[in-house]
Amino acid sequence: TPDDQLEAAVADAPFDLVVCGHTHVQVDRRLEGGRRLVNAGSVGRPYEGMQGAFWALLGDTIELLRTDYDVEEAASAILASGYPDAADHAGQLLDPPGAGEVSVYFESLRGA
């Protein structure tokens, strides 16, 4: 998403650091207006092109981190759960798409 559109989205935020979620991609991005936008990533459906739990440690500094876990066991549990989209979810957990691929898709949905 272009900086000007992100700037507009966070224009009313009362702080220079905006921590957000729901994109499933780790981001630590400084915008032209001086704000910093951080997204921790995702544990259950990362769009990082590799398996693992992607998360952030927030404190005096910000660290974007990745932790290995038993993805195959998690995928098996998802498949056994009865969740309607279990096969898709488990498949993406086992073979996560990359951030670029997913960004192109989601940007196309908003007409960009």
Give the strand tally.
5
Q: What's the tally of helices?
A: 4
Order of helices and strands: HEEEEEHHH
* Strand percent estimate: 15-25%
Shape: globular
User: Can you summarize the main beta sheet?
Assistant: 3 strands, mixed
Average pLDDT, rounded to a whole number, is 92
* Spatial extent as radius of gyration: 16 Å
Q: Percent range for helical residues?
A: 25-40%
Q: What order do the strands of the largest sheet run in, or round the barrel if closed?
A: 1-3-2
Ranges where pLDDT stays below 50 over 5 or more residues in a row are none
Based on secondary structure, the structural category is alpha+beta
Distance from N terminus to C terminus (CA atoms, Å) equals 8 Å
Description:
- 32% of the residues lie in helices and 21% in strands.
- It is of the alpha+beta class.
- A hairpin with a 3-residue loop joins β4 (53-58) and β5.
- α2 packs antiparallel against α3.
- The radius of gyration is 16 Å and the shape is globular.
- The chain starts with a helix and ends with a helix.
- The model has no long low-confidence stretch (mean pLDDT 92).
